[in-house]
Amino acid sequence: MVSEQSRPALQVDVRRPQRADARRNFDALLVAARDAFATKGVEASLEDIARQAGVGIGTLYRNFPNRQDLLNAVYFGEIEELCIAAEKVADLPPWDALTTWLHRFVEYAATKRAIWESLNRETESFKAARAAMYAAGTPLFERAQEAGEARKDVSFDDLLRMVSGLTAAGFVDQAQRDRVLTIALDGVRVR
């Protein structure tokens, strides 16, 4: 299991507020922004995001002086949540841990797809985020392989690319997306 101390630190410029109420507002803005960007794209209204988070536009700008800061915070927040999710599932049986984490990865991939073009993928922060995500998920995959539950001729990168590709398709609903992911993962699972 990857502990918080051994998890690679994400090199980002986003500073979370220290006060509990300010932290709640910050987190609410990230959730609202993630949902808005995923459904409406990167040009989603910042006023609507603030309203959805239950805060004023001044609070949004105090935390995120410009749209790019908010986009970056959403992306890096998703990576951080993926790393935490890997820690939370690490004690499950190998295949269950991997597939539970991959379901969370699908949510991340959908958000990433919505904001991908707005991210500067050449920065050290972006590279560190990608490395942190791989460091969190790779042990889950390797454990499933070692347990004989995942094919050994598949790499973790192969798996993530396959699952990412699934997010490009439109789905009728969450149930269909989950069903398609299960079908795809059946190709990775050793029976």
UniProtKB/TrEMBL annotation:
In which residue ranges does the UniProt entry place its DNA-binding region annotation?
45-64
Xref: InterPro entries: Homeodomain-like_sf (IPR009057), HTH-type_TetR-like_transc_reg (IPR050109), HTH_TetR (IPR001647), Tet_transcr_reg_TetR-rel_C_sf (IPR036271), TetR_SbtR-like_C (IPR049445)
Q: Which GO terms describe its molecular function?
A: DNA-binding transcription factor activity; transcription cis-regulatory region binding
Q: Is Chloroplast one of the keywords?
A: no
Q: Which UniProt keywords apply?
A: DNA-binding, Transcription, Transcription regulation
Q: Does the keyword Transcription regulation apply?
A: yes
Return any one Pfam family short name: TetR_N
Q: Which residues form the HTH tetR-type domain?
A: 23-82
- Any idea what this protein is called? TetR/AcrR family transcriptional regulator
